[in-house]
Amino acid sequence: MAADPTAATRPESAPAPARVLEAEGLVKRYGEREALRGVSLSAGRGELVTVIGPNGAGKTTLLTILAGIVAPDAGRVSPGPREVGWVPQQPALYGKLTVAENLRLFARLERCSEPEATVERMLALTGLGDRAGDQVVKLSGGNRQRVNIAIGLLGQQSVLLLDEPSASLDPRQRERLWEFVLGLAEAGTAVVLSTHNIQEAERHADRVLVLADGELLFTGSPRRLKEAVGQEGDEGLEEAFVAFLHARGH
Amino acid sequence: MRWLLLKDLRLLRRSPLLVTLLVLYPIVIAVLIGFALSRGPDKPQVAFANLVPESASQLDLGGERLDTSRQADVLFRAIDPVIVKSRAEAVRKVRDGDVLGAIVIPEDTTQKLQSGLDPATIEVFYNAEDPIKSGYVRDTIKSQVADANNALTKRLAKVALGFLDLIATGGQYNFLGRQFDVLGLERSERILKEARSELPAGSPARAQIDQVMRFATLARTNLDLSDDVLASVGTPIRVRQVQLDGAATPLSSFSVAIAVSVSIMFITLLLAAGALALEREENAFLRLVRGLVSRTGLLLEKAGLAAVSALAVSLVMLAGLGLFVDLQWDRFHLWVAGLAAAALAFAAMGLAIGALTKEVRSASLLCVMLSLPLAFLALVPSGSVSPVLYDAVQVVSAVFPFKPTLEAIDAALNDSRSIVGPLLHLAALFCAFGVASRLALRRFA
Predict the structure, then answer these.
(1) What ipTM was estimated for this complex?
(2) With an 8 Å Cβ cutoff, are B3 and A109 in contact?
(3) Is B46-167 assigned to CATH 3.10.100?
(4) What is the pLDDT of residues B316-331, one digit of tens each?
(5) Where are the beta strands (DSSP E) in A45-117?
């Protein structure tokens, strides 16, 4: 939680971090409809990659394939699901268990060597030590999402996938969520998250992936996306994103 | 899997309403059924007017006196009598709804019975406000009157037999306080035989006496046969019952088997379906099956939780019912076998339902909507519907666990049949529903 939420994204001149996540040629079909069409991506250690795109673009499908929940019809993903942390869009927690009990249960299921120490560490990381004995159902949406993310981190994987983590959170809760996520990235975790909030992507992402109709249209920094549509000055990434989609016929 | 099981038990502990229902349900069912079996139906209130004067209540049947007023005691065992003094009062009580029916014994009842010429007629009035109760009153009174008719017929037959015996063998007969000596056919025959022996050989009277003796012998022999005829008149139709198929289970014990089957069905289905649906409702399912627990392992854990819980609750229920109904405790191991097999089969069916639904509420609703008609179908007796429909009912019942559960529990409790068949049937259903739930998880989860 120590990261400054207003911190600038990684300088583009910085050396490329070691890749910890790679996916090549991912294809997924649901009947006649192609949800993903040959998508390839990678993420390096400590890198924060955001996947943006209109509704139905295939963002959630991409993340569930990266997480190993859904098998692709073609393509490959590395590493395997046990080595990737996954945080679903809706908190996947047991409402009638306390914060600590949820963490303890999943720590044991993850076969952590020292479950109690892991729970303590996660409580400290989420800043929810004082709420450890509260049932999850009594927590605010933001705090639930923190526990949700903490469970995704229990296995101490080097990659964390988050599916629209800030959806349904108020601005204050979003702020606290980003503090948390940036702290993880700073600590070396590769974070790949999907979002509808383009401003957040512009503000925090090292790289954005633009997905539309299952096709990966762009990979690069937010600044490069602006450049791709000839945007200059103070206009935001959202305008550049919309213009980019228009230019590509979406 | 151990941690998941502990988690589910903790969730159950934190759902006091659900646990209370799970514990109270079998207790309440056991107590209700126990009372129903041990008390029987309430007696209907029926007005009773006996208009026969006290002085005329005695009936003389062949010298034997019968007090007709005491015959009502038999009827009072089946009804709750409200004694009234007149026919009008009896009718009014029925009209006012104070009683469900009324029985009026007219003044001339004993006279008619005594004369034997006209049958005595008693009057019965019904209140048909409640069709079920009025039907019960009608059937009760009809049955009691049939019993009274039967008893009187037997008495009359007995008297007639006495007369016939007197004619056949002779003896003393009392009429209006005076004793008469009746010769009878047997003694007549003896006297004739002696008289014949005193006649000279070749006397023409001998041939006439022989003719009379042959008649006396024939008449006596036929009168001896009349015992059986009169006995048949007293009970013209007798019933010889031969059981061809099915179990010789007392009604009370079969009711226990039904009650336990219904309880284990609901508890197991709701727990298994609810526990699986909860994983999806809490969004934890995908997180779990991402390498933490296999889908099959998850299904086995839920099946075990539901089956063990339902087994424990069912045994508590049986122990409760044992307070009211004689149960064969030496067959306890078979109870456990039958209940465990039933619980596992229902658990697998519950998992299939839970795998189709994403919420606990939907799962619970689907469980109730599916299980109630299936249980009802399994109880449809043969002959109550057309043969084709009954065959269809049998097929549907065989595909779901209620009928084999009922058969297994009945066999375990009452030794009514071999338990092996129902156990194998339940095992097959466990496997089939297990596969179905695994496929449903793959398709819908």
Answers:
(1) 0.78
(2) yes
(3) no
(4) 888 888 887 788 888 8
(5) 48-52, 74-78, 84-87
